[in-house]
Amino acid sequence: xxxxxxxxxxxxxxxxxxxxxxxxxxxxxxxxxxxxxxxxxxxxxxxxxxxxxxxxxxxxxxxxxxxxxxxxxxxxxxxxxxxxx
Length: 85
Description:
Helix content is 59%, strand content 0%. The chain has three helices and no strands.
């Protein structure tokens, strides 16, 4: 009974965050950079109609992912985006 009472004393607190437009755009671009990274490194280099304008390059995929992670840390430090605990 003592253990059951101790479990009820512990309360989980859920933090409800405000959703900003910058956060939504960041997550969309982050997913885009991850897809581009996977496409550049692991998928076949099939010709796509868009690849005539934007070449698939491993260096650019790493650079794009690095920029997005850096931007994510900057938005996190400004408390615009949060990560679940």
